[in-house]
Specification:
The complex is a heterotrimer. Chain A is about 70% helix and about 0% strand. Chain A is an all-alpha fold. In chain A, helix 3 packs parallel to helix 10. Chain A is elongated. Chain B is mostly helical. In chain C, a hairpin with a 5-residue loop joins strand 5 and strand 6. In chain C, helix 5 crosses helix 7. The interface between A and B is large, with 64 and 76 residues.
């Protein structure tokens, strides 16, 4: 067991953003993660160019064909090329990140700002709302929202967005409360600076870092969970080439055609890993206590 | 899922963080009372959410129940029967009242009481969840401890890599891969279900392992175990990774605290310092995290049950949603949420055992 | 009891940082005699705490401790070199021969165990005795320390005691095995003045009863004046003055010490005497030490060309009184 002896006081230096950014990127994990994520983004754009087949194209004669030169990842039960479907599936994944993570961010921030700033009864209500959302295991909440709205890709993304809202709400609210307590903010209020300006000038810049960290970490989770909902049949509907839906197909045929499930799953795993790597490195930057 | 689960979160987080040290007995009871009130408020909120999403949003319930077959007259009669003409608040109260009696209506698919469907399925999920939690804790905590003892060295790096993978792993994919490997290719383990046909133990608790043990049949027990291993390991993977990581982080953080320095200054042997002064103190936040895994576990159970064809609550929920069997969805949602909130409260209260600052004198 | 108890020769402690290694303690040597009180005085960053941790062997990698020798005369009469001792033997020294108490009693005590448990733990690991005997000794220790109702207090948790009592409990824990040397790292800094006085009184009394030597670390000259037999002043990792308390308070020849003494508020100074003189400037960043004498940027006796050229060596300005200043002959309080 190691004990850190007290380090003598070292001067703290003020840095611009590229200092921390450079330090983050110095770490291997961050580089790998960034590479994966960039690769993923590239695929979403380049899918039409790279895919050898149209993902909806059925060719029953090649149904359940194993991986080969013609079908890199094999073919599914309708003879559709799995490789092409996986490539196009990246688009749905990206959509999920934008819609679900974005929704959670916007909604959560709004709630956090409102509650943190207005305080009092409004804050109490907001916090209770957040508590209620958190009272459900996350998938259950998503399930009942989808049950209410009806199974579809959009609805599954909305559901996941709502599920992740509390985390952003808490984060932003915490930032607002911290900023409110600062002396110079109190002084600003005392001379009559309107609250919105305080929000703009102080809360926003300060929250930027933690929000980025959270958005990055959540991005991967969002992909998995929307895929999960699709897997259960509650998200993307066939014949859409969503990774989760592909896995559902794979489940049905896993004894005879292992490739249908394996590759989409690998894709999901890869993307999540990439975001987690970056998020982890980013978070270490902002919260050095967690480092080794 | 984020790499480190939210450490302070859940319905009672604010109480958790703002805890001042209470050493007075009456203070403790007041605290518990306050928590129960909060619990009640949250449960009311939960019931409102469930009611709202299940009753109000899906639109015309009568239409859904009868489908296209109903004539206008039958629809009107059904609406009256279900009380759908009443104001929303009244409907809600009727719902809550009925729910308090365990009456959630009849399942549209099985024609049994919705609650019966739920209570039959629940023990399966409970068994799976407990098994997974046990595996995750028993492997996760020691891994985290040993990784923290030599940070940056081989074991630590390996452990961190594996847990990184674990945390990023989509559970449904993992399950399928394991099935492929152990079930199909190697054929060591069954590919689904709770037990082989003819090996089902007589139902006492509804949990196959316990029932088999109670029935005194080793072969049934072994069979039940074989069916449980893969799903439990699949479900345990992500929580295990989290627990290992947080254990490591907390051990490292605790090791730099002053009291550890004092313990070493007293000349205590290393092992003792680690176990009694680092681990013991680190347990408080670690137990928080283990408690928080419940949400992950319950969610993961849904997917795991689907893959391994286990007749649990998760699968029931999914099937009911797909078949629009709203009474069952309602019953299940409310039930799971209640259990979840309750267990969180219990975990919170268990801190009083771990942290004497919260305990009474 | 006369004779040297601890002899530290050329101690050097370095820590690696992103900008290169920094030397927290630079070529330090001192001795402590039996029953003697040595007070190490310095501001934060002077290296005073690191010194004591190094003696105890509590500096862990990546920090590095180097010394010609750290000789301790044990209770069994044997002399050991602590800098070369394997960890297993070092553990026997800690607590039994040398004990250490720290600044913050609240965080230095484990909050999840009672103080009784923590004291008994220390006792039973150094001496074989039954739980009951250990408990009895712990209780006796608490009584000696002036804690009322010691039996009840044994079962109290740290957070249930006041600051002063906690510090007494810590002292009790440290002394429970009758060490021959107590290292006290700013034990009274976190306490109020009245309690501070009590604790100092207590330590002095115990020192007499047990024949114990004390290394007392503080930034407070007032405390030094009260209890020191000898004083060692540290600055930026080096010893800058050492000598008997008498010699230093009577006639220090070091600008830094003079500055410290002047900045102590005194009763009787009236408002018109002007603002309290503080030493201008700041403690240097160990990564960017000034050339030559490390104090020269803040020194009123600074002579360009001399003081910033080379590092002053320790010179004797009188018998047993060393200073590290090139101009000490010109320096008066």
């Amino acid at each position: 067991m190691t004990i850190s002896a007290p380090y003598p006081s070292l001067g703290a230096a003020k840095e611009r953003w590229y200092g921390p950014a450079a330090r983050v990127l110095r770490r291997h994990e961050a580089k790998l993660g960034l590479a994966i994520v960039l690769g993923f983004l590239f695929l979403t754009v380049a899918a039409p160019l790279l895919a050898p087949y149209d993902p909806y194209d059925q060719e029953l004669s090649s149904a359940l064909a194993p991986p080969s030169a013609q079908h890199l990842f094999g073919a599914d039960q309708y003879g559709r090329d799995v490789f092409s479907r996986v490539l196009y599936g990246s688009r749905t994944a990206l959509l999920a990140i934008i819609v679900a993570d974005g929704l959670a961010l916007l909604l959560g921030s709004a709630l956090g700002l409102v509650g943190g700033f207005l305080g009092g009864a409004v804050d109490a209500i907001v916090m209770r709302l957040v508590d209620v959302l958190l009272a459900f295991p996350y998938l259950l909440l998503a399930l009942i929202i989808v049950a209410a709205l009806g199974p579809s890709l959009t609805n599954s993304m909305i559901a996941i967005g709502i599920v992740y809202t509390p985390q952003y709400a808490r984060l932003i609210r915490g930032q607002v409360l911290a900023v409110r307590a600062l002396d110079y903010v109190r002084a600003a209020r005392a001379i009559g600076t309107p609250r919105w300006r305080i929000m703009l000038r102080h809360v926003l810049p300060n929250s930027f870092g933690p929000v980025i960290v959270m958005a990055t970490l959540q991005a991967g989770s969002v992909v998995v969970e929307t895929a999960g909902l699709s897997f259960l049949g509650l998200g993307a509907q066939p014949p859409s080439p969503d990774w989760g839906a592909l896995l559902a197909d794979g489940h049905n045929y896993f004894l005879t055609a292992w490739w249908i499930a394996t590759f989409p799953g690998l894709a999901i795993f890869g993307v999540v890993l990439g975001f987690n790597l970056i998020g982890d490195a980013l978070r270490d930057q902002f919260d050095p206590r967690r480092r080794t | 899922m984020p790499l480190e689960p939210r450490r302070v979160s859940g319905p009672f987080a604010r109480m958790r963080t703002s805890l001042s040290w209470r050493s007075d007995r009456s203070e403790l009871w007041r605290y518990i009372g306050w928590r129960l009130i909060q619990l009640a408020i949250v449960l009311i909120g939960v019931s409102i959410v469930v009611f709202f999403t299940m009753h109000v949003l899906p639109g015309d319930v009568a239409m859904l129940l009868l489908g296209d077959r109903g004539t206008a007259e039958q629809l009107a009669k059904l609406r009256l029967q279900l009380g759908l003409d009443q104001p929303v608040v009244v409907q809600y109260l009727r719902f809550v009242l009925a729910a308090a009696h365990g009456d959630f209506g009849t399942s549209l698919t099985s024609n049994r009481a919705a609650f019966d469907d739920v209570s039959t399925a629940f023990p399966v999920t409970l068994q799976l969840t407990l098994a997974a939690l046990t595996i995750a804790t028993v492997i996760g905590v020691p891994t985290g401890v040993f990784a923290s003892l030599r940070p940056g060295r081989t074991f630590d790096n390996l452990a961190m890599t594996f847990t990184l993978f674990g945390v990023s792993m989509p559970i449904f994919w993992l399950g399928l891969m394991l099935l492929l490997a152990f079930g199909a290719t190697l054929d060591w383990l069954p590919i689904g279900g709770l037990s082989e046909v003819g090996m089902e133990p007589p139902r006492i608790t509804g949990m196959s392992l316990i029932d088999a043990a109670l029935a005194g049949s080793p072969s049934m027990f072994w069979d039940a175990l074989r069916h449980l291993i893969l799903p439990a390991c699949t479900l345990a993977t992500v929580p295990l990774a989290f627990i290992a990581r947080i254990t490591r982080a907390e051990m490292l953080a605790t090791a730099t605290q002053d009291h550890v320095r004092t313990a070493r200054a007293k000349g205590l042997p290393r092992a003792r310092v680690i176990v009694r002064h680092v681990l013991r103190n680190a347990l408080i936040p670690i137990v928080t995290v283990i408690g928080l895994q419940l949400g992950l576990l319950l969610s993961g159970a849904v997917l795991t049950e689907t893959i391994f064809s286990l007749p649990g609550l998760g699968r029931l929920m999914v099937d009911s949603i797909l078949s629009r069997d709203y009474p069952v969805v309602q019953a299940g949602a409310l039930f799971i949420a209640f259990v979840f909130v309750l267990v969180n409260l219990l975990v919170d209260l268990s801190y009083t055992l771990l942290d004497p600052r919260i305990r009474r004198v | 009891m006369k004779g040297t108890l601890l002899e530290v020769e050329n101690l050097k402690v370095t820590f690696p940082t992103e900008e290169g290694p920094i030397t927290a303690v630079d070529d330090l040597s001192f001795t402590v005699g039996r029953g003697e009180t040595l007070v190490i005085v310095g501001e934060s960053g002077s290296g005073k705490s690191v010194t004591s941790l190094a003696v105890m062997g509590l500096i862990a990698p990546p920090g590095r401790v180097e010394a010609r020798a750290i000789r301790l005369v044990g209770k069994d009469g044997r002399t050991r070199d602590l800098s070369r001792l394997p960890e297993t033997e070092m553990r026997q020294i800690r607590g039994a021969e040398i004990a250490m108490i720290f600044q913050e009693p609240m965080t230095s005590l484990n909050p999840v165990y009672t103080i009784g448990e923590q004291i008994i733990e220390a006792i039973r690991f150094h001496e074989t005795m039954s739980r009951r005997a250990a408990r009895a000794r712990a209780e006796e220790m608490l009584r000696l320390l002036g804690i009322p109702e010691p039996r009840r207090r044994l079962d109290a948790y740290p957070h249930q005691l006041s600051g002063g009592m906690r510090q007494r409990a810590m002292i009790g824990m440290a002394l429970s095995c009758h060490p021959s040397l107590l290292i006290a790292d700013e034990p009274t800094t976190a306490l109020d003045v009245t309690v501070q006085a009590q604790i100092l009184e207590l330590i002095r009394g115990l020192q007499k009863d047990f024949g114990m030597a004390v290394i007392f670390i503080t930034h407070n000259l007032g405390v030094a004046a009260e209890i020191a037999d000898r004083i060692m002043v540290m600055y930026a990792g080096q010893v800058v003055e050492t000598g008997s308390a008498r010699a230093i308070f009577r006639g220090t020849r070091l600008p830094y010490t003079i500055g410290l003494m002047r900045s102590v508020p005194r009763l009787g100074l009236d408002r018109d005497s002007g603002p309290l003189p503080a030493i201008q400037g700041n403690v240097p960043d160990l990564r960017r030490l000034p050339k030559g004498c490390r104090f020269h940027p803040r020194c009123s006796w600074f002579e360009p060309g001399l003081c910033d050229a080379k590092l002053p060596p320790l010179e004797a300005c009188e018998e047993g009184h060393l200073v590290r200043c090139l101009r000490w002959r010109k320096v008066h309080a």
